[in-house]
Amino acid sequence: MIDSAFPLFLSLAVSAISTAGATAQVGFVDRTNLLQNTGVRSGFVMGVADMNGDGRDDIVRLDIGRILRVEYQGTPGGSFGTHVHGSVSSSRQWGLCIADVDHNGARDIFTGGYYDGAEVHFANASGTAYSSTPLPGPTLFVQTANFADIDGDGWLDIFACHDDAESHKYRNNGQGGFDFAPGMMDASTTPASDNSGNYGSLFTDYDGDGDVDLYISKCRIGVNSSTDPRRINKLLRNDGDTWTEVGGVSGLDFGQQSWAADFGDLDGDGDMDAFIVNHYEPSVLMRNNGDGTFTDVTAASGLAPHLDMVGIQVAFRDFDNDGNLDLLIAGDAQRLFLGDGALGFTLAANPFTGPTMESFALGDLNHDGFIDVYAGYARIINTPSTIPDRLLLNTANSNNWLQVGLVGTTSNLDGVGARIELTADDRLQVREVRSGESYGISHSLTSGFGLGAAGFVESLRVIWPSGVVDELRNVNVNQRLELVEGSTGVRNLSVALIGDEFNDAEESDQGVVWRRNRDLELVEDGARGDQVVGMRYALDVPPDVTIVDAWIQFTAEGRDFDEANLLISAEASDDAALIKSFPFNLSLRPRTMASVAWSPPSWTLIGRRSSIERTSSLRAVIQEVIDRDGWNAGNHVLLLVTGTGRRSAYSSDAGLALVGGGAGTHPNAPTLHVLYSDRHVATSAVRSALADGEERESGYVTLSSPDLELVDDGSNLGQVVALRFEDVAVPPGATIDRAYLQFTVDEIGLGTCALSVAAEASGSPATLGEVSQNFTARAQTAATVEWPVLPWERVGDAEFAQRSPDLSPILQELVGRSDWSFNTDAVFLLSGQGTRTAEAFEGGAARSPRLVVEFSVGGGNSAPYVDAGEDIVLSGTNSAQLAATYFDDQRGADVLWSKVSGPGAVTFADATVASPTAVFGTAGTYTLRLTVDDGTFTGTDDVTVTVGGVGTTILLAISGSADDAEESDVGSVWRSNDDLELVADGTRGHQTVGLRFTGLGVPQGATITSATIQFTADETTTEPTSLVLRAQASGDAPGITGGTGSISSRQLGAASVTWQPAGWGAGIAGPDQRTPNLAALLQEVVSRPDWTSGQAVLFVITGTGQRVARSIDGDPTGAAVLSVTYQ
C-alpha cells in the first residue's frame, strides 16, 4: 500500500536534507496536462485519496457534477491513468466523501445530491472498479457528507447534511452495507424547528478527550433572523453514549449563514482552533482556550482586512512545509494565508495563476511531500462553469516534511478519527484523519507535516479511535510512513476524570481537609501552609500490564512565577477510599514507595491547559499501584501532592461550573492519563563506575571519567564508549518490540553529532577493563543502529533528545544467541563523530545511562525464569533485603519464598513478593528459595545468606600516620604514603601492607561474628588481583616502625582469608572495596590471654595484582575503616 521507493516503516537512519527553512513565497503551477481528459468540469464536488493502494494520492471528480471519474497518479510527477465509472445520478451532486467502509483494502465513495438517492460506490479489492448501492431510508437534499465512526464500533458510519430537515445518519452494519439510523445522534435544534439548514459538517476532537465531536455549519436561505435555530451553528460534544449540544457554551454558535469550517492546531498548544466561513458577517478565526470555549482572534490575526469575500471552501494545511498551518479559502475569490504558528497570518502574493477557483481538494498529487491543489470552478453553487478543473502542483522548496498514512486493526481501516501528534524542534503539531470536510469535498487521508529545517522528528504519536496509542521516536524526515494500529507496542490510553467534588481536596498543615474548592493550590496556600493535595480517580487499567507512561494534566487557575518543587506519590491501596473531611484524612494514608519529583515552570496564562501544566511522568507510581494483588480495572487510585511553592490549578468544582453542563464532565479539572501495554518491559542501568568508560583512538581505556563524551573529547576524536548493563531481564528467544538507551545531559551540546550503536556479540560479555583496546577488540553484533543526535540544550535533561532510536535489531540478535540467558549482562558500544556529554555512573547512579527493552513472547506457556539475586553477607544485622527478578509469559504467576536450610527461623515480611525483607533468628548460613508458579510450570532459584551475630558493632578507622604502611619485597618500609598499593607497586615489587587499628573496644574472649575492612579506591584498577589477609598473633600489636621488615617479620596467626576483589573505580567505597569476613582472624586475637579491650590489632596483606586504596596521609577521610560485630 506504499511506494516501494519509501520504507513501509520508518528507517532508523536520519539524514538532514536541508539546513535552513525555505523563506520563499509558496506558488503553484498548472499541470492539468498530466490528466488524460483536460476538459472535465466538476464544479465544486471533488476529492483526493489513494484509491488503488499504491501509496499515491489520486483524484476523484464528477464531470458535469455527476459522471464519476477516478484519475490514478502514476510515476511521481508523470501522467495520470483514468477510470470512468459513469453517471451516479441524473442530477448534479452536492456532497462526496471517501474511505474504505467495507474493509476490503480499497476506498469507497459516497455521493449525494438533490433528492436523487444518496449512494455508496463500493470499490473492488484493487480499487479499479465500483458497484453502486443506494442508501436506505427517505431521500434527502445532501450537502456535506462524512464517513465517521459515530457509534465507536470500528466501522465507518455516514453523516449526511440535509438542507431541508434534520441530517441523516446511516449505521455501517459491518456486512458491506448501511442501515438508516436516525437515532444514532440527536442533531435537532433548540428551540424546535424543522431542523433544516445543514450545510457543512466536520468531525473533530475539539475538547481533546479522545473521541471526535461534530461541528455543523448552518445556513438556511430565506431565513433572515440570526437567532433562528435553522441558521445557528451547532457543536455536538461526543460524551460516549450521547451527543450534547455545546455550541452556545463554546462560543461557536454563529447565526451568520455559515457554509463551512475547519479546525486545526494553529499555535502548537495541542488544541484545535477554528475558522468559520460566514456569509452575512465576516468570517472568523477562533482560538481554542483549552477549557471548552473559544475566543475570537480575527482582528489580531491579520486576516480581517482580507475577508471581504463569499467563501465556500476552507482548509488548514501547511502548504510551504515550514511547520505552521496555512489557510486556504475559495469562493468568489481565492486567498491563501501563510501562518506564523502563533495564530497570525500573512496574505500570500499571487500563489495561483488563472481563474478564481470556487472549490478544491487537497493532497500530494506528484508525490514530492508538498500539498497540491485540485481546483474546481462553478457558479457559486454546484453548477459547473465553463472552466475545466485544473491540477495545480506546489512548486515546493527545500523544507523537510513527513507524511503519515494509517491502517487500523481494531479501529476502522483508514484510521478516520485518529489524532496524530508530531514533535520536531521542540514544537508540537497535530493532525486529525477525516473523511468529508468543508462543503461537500474530501481531502487526502494521508496526514502531511511540514518540518522546516528540522533534520528529524523527535516523536510521532498516533492516538487511534480505539484508544490504542502508537509511538515512534527519532523518525527520518522526507518519507512516507504507513503505521499499522498497535505496531509500535499496542499502548492503550486510559484517561480518568475526577468524578465529583469529593474526589479532589486540600489538607492544611494543621490537618484540616477542604473538599469544596474552586482551585487546588499546589501546595502553598497562605495561612494553610504547605498543603497535601489529593486527587482520586477511577482508573480503567487492568492488572498485569506494563505502565508505559502516566501524567496529570492540570489547567492553570492563577499566574504563578515563584519556584515550586513538588513530590507526587499515591495511596498504597488496592482501591482508594473516598476523601473524607476527617482531620489528616489525606496525610495519614499509606503511600507508595515510588514518588516523582516535579518542578513545573512558571504558569503565566489563566485557563491554559498545555504541556507546561502537565506533570512529570508518574509511570513508577501508577505501576506500583496496579501491581498490587487486589488491583482490578475500575478501582480507584488516589494521587497525593506535597512539597513547596505554589501552582494554582482548577479543581473539579470550578471545571464543571465553567463549561456549564455535562454530567460528570469537568474539562478544566485535573485529568489522569495512563499509557499501558500488555507487553513486557525490562530496564537495566549502568550500576558501577567500572561499567562505563571511554577508549581513545590510541586504544587507551579509562573507566574513571566523571562523564561520557559521545564521542569526541577535545583532541581525542572518535572515541568508543562502552556501557555494561547488568541483569537484562529478557528471556532467550523473546521478540523485541522496542529498545532504547536513555542518557542524562552533563554538558550542553548543540553541534552536529552522529553516532552508531552496536553491542558486544556475546551472551555473557567480559567485564570492562583498563587494558588497551578493551572495547574495540570485542566482537560486535551484525546489527547496528545509526543515531543522529538532537541538540542537548539543558543540563540534567533526560528526555526524547537524549533517547536513542529503536535498538530492537541489536537486542533481537542478542536474545537469539545460544549463550543468551535470562538476567544476563549486555555491553553496548557507541562510536561516530561529534560531541554529546552524558552523565557517567560517577555523576550519580540515578543519572547513569539506562537500557529499556519492551518485548513479547509466544509459542505457548513455558516455565518461569527466576533469579533469586546475589548471595548476601550480613554484618551487624539479622535483616536482609532480598532482590529477586523473575519473568513469566503468562503474567499473574504466584511467587513464594521459603527456607531450604539454615540454623534458625526465617521470617519474611511478605513471602509472596519478589523482593521482601527477611529476618533471621540466629547467626549462620541460610539457603532461601524463590519459587514462581504459573499454574502449569514452576521455576526456582536459590540465594545464600550468611548472617553474622547481631551483637555490638564497632567502627574504627586508621588514626595515625604510621598505622598504614607499605613494605617492599626487599623489606624497606614506607609509613607516609599518598595511597596504599595492594600489593604490586612498580619497582617495590609485591609489597606487604600493614594496617594497625588502635583502641579496639572488644572484650577478651568475645565471640566475633563479623569483621571487615572498608577501603576507598584511590585509583581505577581492574587487573586480576588475589590478596591474603592475616592478623598479628599479639594481644596488643606494636606500632609500625621504619626498620627493615617491620611488617613482614611479625609473627602471624594461623587463620587467613583470601580476597579476590572485583575491579575498583576511583573514589568508590562500596561492597567491592570491602574485604570478606575477617572474623576468624580477629577471633584469634581477642581469644588470647594477653588481649584486653582497648588494645591494638594489626592486619597484614600480601598477594598478587593491584588495587590502590586511599591512605590516612593522602586522605584522612578515606582511610581504611575496621567494622567489628561481637557478642
Automatic annotation (TrEMBL):
InterPro entries: Crtac1 (IPR027039), FG-GAP (IPR013517), Ig-like_fold (IPR013783), Integrin_alpha_N (IPR028994), PKD_dom_sf (IPR035986), UnbV_ASPIC (IPR011519). It comes from Saltatorellus ferox. One of its GO terms (molecular function) is hydrolase activity, acting on glycosyl bonds. Residues 415-481 form the ASPIC/UnbV domain. Transmembrane segments: none annotated. PANTHER family: CARTILAGE ACIDIC PROTEIN 1. Gene3D superfamilies: Immunoglobulins, Integrin alpha, N-terminal. Keywords: Glycosidase, Hydrolase, Signal. Its EC number is 3.2.1.187. This is Beta-L-arabinobiosidase. It is an enzyme of class 3 (hydrolase). The gene is hypBA2. The keyword Hydrolase applies. It comes from the Bacteria. Residues 1-20 form the signal peptide.
